[in-house]
Amino acid sequence: MEVIKTEIEGVVIIEPRIFKDARGYFFESFSQREFEEKVGHVEFVQDNESMSSYGVMRGLHFQRPPYTQAKLVRCVRGRVLDVAVDIRKGSPTYGKHVAVELTENNHRQFFIPKGFAHGFAVLSETAVFQYKCDEFYHPEADGGISILDGSLGIDWQIPTEHAILSEKDTKHPLLKDFESPFVYSK
């Protein structure tokens, strides 16, 4: 696997080595040993999968301490724009984001460390999205910032009138009105 660093330290894109022939393809979608060597030590405890239609936007989500989550995400069918926003108080990249297109064809994965809000927009007719988390889901620790916050400067590649949001996701605060539970540390 190749690890591609982004503008925000710790947020990385992972490109697997894909072996193709007349039968199709094969790749290791996850190796704990290689992940630890190239990215760092993370113990994933829960895998999730969602299926969504074009225009669905999910996020920008996180879990509050002590149940913070790091995530390793990928799109196994279709195409999504995946985004991580730095919400660590005192971070030199606070409020900045990294966006990457994840598709069934590029097989890219995106690692989002703790202290980031995460979301995605479905760009294809449907998309199946998978993610590994290093902490179990705790509904009482749910948090979010508005996925439609224009101050974040995210081009979701979906016209606002086509965006499909859950009721919960329409109620998250804007970044300027948000008190982050995360603190940046080097």
From TrEMBL:
Pathway assigned in UniProt: Carbohydrate biosynthesis; dTDP-L-rhamnose biosynthesis
EC nos: 5.1.3.13
Keyword set, alphabetical order: Isomerase
Catalyzed reaction equations: dTDP-4-dehydro-6-deoxy-alpha-D-glucose = dTDP-4-dehydro-beta-L-rhamnose
GO molecular function: dTDP-4-dehydrorhamnose 3,5-epimerase activity
InterPro entries: RmlC-like, RmlC-like_jellyroll, RmlC_Cupin_sf
TM ranges: none
Entry similarity comment: Belongs to the dTDP-4-dehydrorhamnose 3,5-epimerase family.
Function (record text): Catalyzes the epimerization of the C3' and C5'positions of dTDP-6-deoxy-D-xylo-4-hexulose, forming dTDP-6-deoxy-L-lyxo-4-hexulose.
Oligomer and partners: Homodimer.
Protein name per UniProt: dTDP-4-dehydrorhamnose 3,5-epimerase
Annotated organism of origin: Bacteroides gallinaceum
